[in-house]
Amino acid sequence: MQRMQALFKLQSLQSRQTTQTFRSLLTDSSEDLRLVAFGLLDKTEKAIFSRIHQELTLLHRVVDEEHKLEHWRQLAYTYWELVYQQAVVGDVLDFALAQVRVYATEVLFQEEQDGGMWTLLGQVNFHAKDYEVARYCYSQALTCGMPESRIVPYMAEVLFAQREYSSLQIVLSIQTSLMDVAAFQPVLEYWRNPKHSMETSDVFV
Prior knowledge:
Number of strands: 0
Largest sheet: none
Oligomer: single chain
Helix content: over 70%
Order of helices and strands: HHHHHHHHHHH
Distance between the termini: 47 Å
Shape: flat
Low-confidence stretches: 198-205
């Protein structure tokens, strides 16, 4: 009963972490918990797809490029929410990622300086493990004026995935824009210590 009550309380928080919790409960030994978790995940997925449907309906009604641009942008963000919230898996996940690419690219054809769309493409390519393309996209996002405090953590994630630990340490050592981001402080402290950088490299070689 307590676990069930906690599950319903988590529903009101609705974040990526709660979605992960719901998905982990799909294999729980309790059938009641499995059913509730499935229902909550289904509700999240349907809510996002409802917004996508609304955007598509509005998109089909407009004819001028300026208004299309805004709907393409919103569709890219909303499809990415499906991925970020881990609301979909398998073929539906692949479809959502493909749609983010489609709509973000449509926007960039019209507005090449849209840093938000470059950031989204970076995240999609990172998810696909196309790390060099992801780095290029994040670099473009910075060039287009996206704040370093938002992009550098993504770039650091790519460098770590590529095992370029020395480059990662250099990037984080010269950043001052992240000093005020409380959640990032443990990461900065760790990677600014040369000893830790070498230890990590040894572990992953």
